[in-house]
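Structure ticket #2291
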Amino acid sequence: MSSDTSLDKNSETPSDQDKKNDSSLDKLTKDLDSFQKLTKTLRSFLDWLAELIVTKNWVSLLLVVDAFFLFFFFPKRGVISGFFKELPIFVAEEYGLIFWLIFAGVFLTALGIAVKTMPRASTPILDFTERKAIRGLRAFSQDDAEIFAQLQRDQLRWHCVIAICENV
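Resolution: structure written out below.
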C-alpha cells in the first residue's frame, strides 16, 4: 500500500498541472503589473527631478539629496552601510559624526537658500501727494494760500499777529 501512496504523490493529474500553470501565469502577470507600476513611478520621479533642475529649485533638490543620503548612508541601517566596514579604522570610527555633519550641512544649506529666496513682504509705497503743505524750508507764497489753509493754523497765525502788534 505504501507504494501506491507514493505513486499518487508523485503523479499529478492534468488538472493539477493546469492549476500550477495558471498559478504561475497569474504570478507572472502580477509581477509584470508590478514592474509596469514601478517603471511609471520611476518615470514620474525622474520627470519631477528634471523639473526641479530646469526650474532651479535648489531647496527641493538639496532636500532630495539629503533624503537620498539618509536612505543609503544612514549609520548601521543604510542600504549600503555594510560597505563601510572595510573603510580605514579612523574613518569607520568617526562615520556617524561625518554622516551627521554632511546631513546637517546639506539641510542647513537648503534652509539658507529657502530663507534667502523667500519673497519679502513689500512695504507699501506712501503717497506724498496729499502732504503738499509740508514744504520744508521753502517759504510759502500767495500761491500757496490753499495749501497753508490745509494746515488749519489760522488761529495760531492770528495769535502771532497780535503778539507782534502789541510789542510795536
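Closing remark: Residues 49 and 84 are 28 Å apart (CA to CA).
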